[in-house]
Amino acid sequence: MCILAYRLPVDDKMKYILVTGGVISGIGKGVIASSVGTLLKSYGIRVTSIKIDPYINIDAGTFSPYEHGEVFVLDDGGEVDLDLGNYERFLDIKLHRDNNITTGKIYQHVINKERRGDYLGKTVQVVPHITDAIQEWVERVANIPVNGDQQRPDVCIIELGGTIGDIEGMPFVEAFRQFQFRVKKENFCCIHVSLIPQPRTTGEHKTKPTQASVREMRGLGLSPDLIFCRSVNPINNSVKDKISLFCHVPPEQVICVHDVSSIYRVPVLLEDQGLGHFFIKQLQLTHFSPGPKKLMARWRELANRYERLIDEVTIALVGKYTELEDAYISVVKALKHSALAVNHRLNLTLIEAADLEPERLNDGPSKYHTAWHQLVSAQGILVPGGFGIRGTEGKILACQWAREKKIPYLGVCLGLQCAVIEFARNVLKKKDAHSTEFRPETTNPVVIEMPEHNTGVMGGTMRLGKRKTLFTTQESSLRKLYLGVDYVEERHRHRYEVNPKFVDLFESHGMKFVGRSEDGERMEIMELSDHPYFVGVQYHPEYISRPLKPSCPYLGLLLASCGKLTSYLSRGCRLSPQMYLEEPQDDTSDEELSALDQNGAAIAKPVLLDAPE
Ligand code: GLN
Fold first, then answer.
1. Ligand 1 atom closest to the CA of 415, numbered from 1
2. Is 309-570 CATH 3.30.420.130?
C-alpha cells in the first residue's frame, strides 16, 4: 500500500509556531496549540511540540497533584507537565523528556557549562547565554523524530506557559525575539491566545485586555501573526475588526475560539476558519497537499458523535485528589475515549477514598453515606495510581465491593496493589496483609518495595517509563482486548510491586497474574477468574490512550460496565468500520481503508453497540 504518495520532497527548513498567552492563564492554550498541530497533521505535515514551563523546578516529578495536576510520564521515563499529554493525545506522537523545557533545566545546563569552563572566563549572563541556550535547545529538540518512524518533523509547535508579561517568562520571550531572525521570518509564526471577556452588565465582548496584552508583547519585540480569541460565545465581525485595527493584524488572522461542546471540536473549528491554508501559505509549506484530509473528517465525526450520545455509563473513580480533576487528567481522558468508543456519555463520579472508611462517620454520617451511595450506584469502578497512606483503606473497601458484587473493576498501579491487599485479607484470610509502603511491620507483606528501587531517597528512584509486559497465557480477557498480542509496552511509575513470594498462593485461589515483566519477576497484569472484569495493571495505560485509539484496559472496563464485553470479545473485537483504525494516511483510498480495517492492528477497535447481551 502506498501510504505517503502525496508527500513531496520536504523543504529542509524546520518551521516553528510559537504559542503565547495573554490576559490570564488557564484558557485552553494547550488544547488550542495541540489542535493547531492536529490541523497541520491532517495536511500530511509531521508535527512535534515543545512545552515551556518557566518555573525553576527541573521537572514535574516532585509536584503535588494538588498544585499542578497530574504528573505525565513519557516513554523515556521523563516526568513532565500534563500539557505534554495533550500533544501526545491530539497528535498521536511520543515525546521525549527534552520536549519539556523549564527554567530549571536551562539554568542547570548553562551552569554545568560554566563549571566545565566552556565560557572561557566570560561573565555568564541571561542575554546572551541563557537566551542562546534556549534557542539551541529548541532547535535541537524540534528535529527529534516523534512518530516512531524516525522521520524528522516538519513543524514544531512551541507553547510558552504562563502569560506575556510574567517575570519568569521574560528570558524565553527575549530568546524567541532573537529566534525569529535566526530561523528567518518565513519559518516562524507567532500565535497569541487571549481572553475576550463579555461582562454581563453590557453583554458586549471587550477587547481592551487583548489590546493591552498584544501591546506588551509587541513592546518585547514579538508581533503576533494570529490572535486567537477565547470567549464564551462567538465574537462577531465588528469585534474582529476592532482587534485587527488595534492589534495590527488583518481581520482574517483574528480567530474565534469560543466554548464548544468538546475538545474534539477545536481542530474542526480552526480548519473551518481557513487556518490550514493560512499556515501553508505563511510558512511556505505549499509542497503539502492543501485541503482538509481524512484525519480531519475523523475528528469531525468524533465531535459530532460526542454531541449525539444518548446512553450514559457511570464510573466511580475512587481516589485521593478528587477536588482537582486535573490530578487524574489522563485517567479521565482515557475513560472518555473508551466511553465514546462504546457510544456512551461518561458520567464520572469522583469519590474521595477516605470518605468510604468507617472512621469518616466520626465527622457525621453525610460524607460517608454519600460516598457509599455513589460507589454502589456505579456501573464500573476504577482505583487510579497514588502515593501515601491516606484513603488506602477506602480504596481497599472499594475493591472488595467490586470483587464481591461482581462490578467491573480496573485498578491502575496502586489500584492493582489495593486489589491484591484486599484479596489477601478477605480471601486468603491474611488479616494484616498490607503493602510495606503503608505498614512496613506487616507479617504479610503482599506488596513490597522493588529491591533496586529501595534507595531511601525521594525523586528519581522510581521504575519509570516504557517497559515490556509479556502475556503468560491465552486465558486472559485483557490479552483478547489487546487483540491477542504476545506483549504490550506501557508506561510505568512505581516503587512497589506484588511480592513474588505470594504469587502461587494468589493464583491457586483465582487471582491470576497473566502479564509479567520480561524476566518474569514483576507482576504486571492481574485478572480475577470468575468475575466479569476485575483487572489490575501495574503500569499506567492511560498515558498512551488516544481519542482515536482508546486504551485497551480502559475499553474493557467501559465495555464490561455497559454489559457488552462478552459480545465484543466473542465477535473478535471487531465492530464499526468507520473509526479507530490504525491511523490511515490521508491519501488512503476507501478500499485501502477497508483493507486496514480487515487486517486490524494492536489497538482497541471501535464498538458500535447494537445488540444487547
Ligand atoms: N505508591 C505505589 C508505588 O510506588 C503506587 C504508585 C502509583 O500508583 N503510581 O508502587
1. 8
2. no
Q: Which residues pair with 513 in a beta bridge?
A: 526
The amino acid at 477: S
Provide mean pLDDT across the span 170-181.
96
Q: Is the dihedral of CA 242, 245, 246, 251 positive or negative?
A: positive
**Residue 130, helix vs strand vs coil:** helix
* pLDDT, mean of residues 72-91: 92
Residue nearest to atom 6 of ligand 1 (CA): 494
Ligand 1: which atom is nearest the Cα of residue 496?
Answer: 10
Domain locations along the chain: 11-285+295-304, 309-570
**Contact between residue 81 and residue 338 where contact means Cβ atoms under 8 Å apart:** no
Whether 540 is a known active-site residue: answer yes
Q: Cell numbers 474493557 label which residue?
A: 556
What's the CA angle centered on 543, arms 537 and 545, to 5 degrees? Answer: 95
Write b or e for each residue in 86-100: b if 16 or more Cβ atoms lie within 10 A of its Cβ, otherwise e: bbbbbbbbbbbbbbb
Residue 547: count of CB within 10 angstroms of its CB: 24
**Number of Cβ within a 10 Å radius of residue 115:** 9
Q: Model-level pTM?
A: 0.88
**Residue 133 phi/psi, 5° resolution?**
-60, -40
Q: Are strands 487-494 and 523-528 parallel, antiparallel or unpaired?
A: unpaired
**Shortest-distance Cα residue to atom 9 of ligand 1:** 385
Cβ 157 vs Cβ 33: under 8 Å = yes
The pairing of beta strand 445-449 with beta strand 496-498: antiparallel
pLDDT of 427 > 70? The answer is: yes
Cβ 29 under 6 angstroms from ligand 1: no
pLDDT at position 584 is: 39
**11-285+295-304 placed in CATH 3.40.50.300:** yes
Residue to probe by mutation, ligand 1, list 439, 492, 495, 498, most atoms within 8 Å of CB = 495
Q: Are 349 and 316 in contact (CB under 8 A)?
A: yes
State yes or no: is 189 an active-site residue: no
CA distance 277 to 279: 5
Q: Do the first three CATH levels of 11-285+295-304 and 309-570 match, i.e. the same topology?
A: yes
Q: Quick one: which atom of ligand 1 is closest to the CA of 388?
A: 1
Euclidean distance between CA atoms 535 and 529, whole angstroms: 10
Q: CA-CA distance, 582 to 10, in Å (whole number)? A: 24
Q: Is 248 a catalytic residue?
A: no
* Ligand 1 center from residue 601 Cα (angstroms): 30
Query: Which atom of ligand 1 is found nearest the CA of 386?
Result: 8
pLDDT for res 364: 87
pLDDT band, very low/low/confident/very high, at 593 (cuts 50, 70, 90): very low
pLDDT value at 600 more than 50: no
Question: Residue 594 pLDDT > 90, yes or no?
Answer: no
Alpha carbon distance 111, 102 (integer Å): 14
How many angstroms does the Cα of residue 438 sit away from the middle of ligand 1? Answer: 11
| Amino acid (one-letter) located at 560 | A
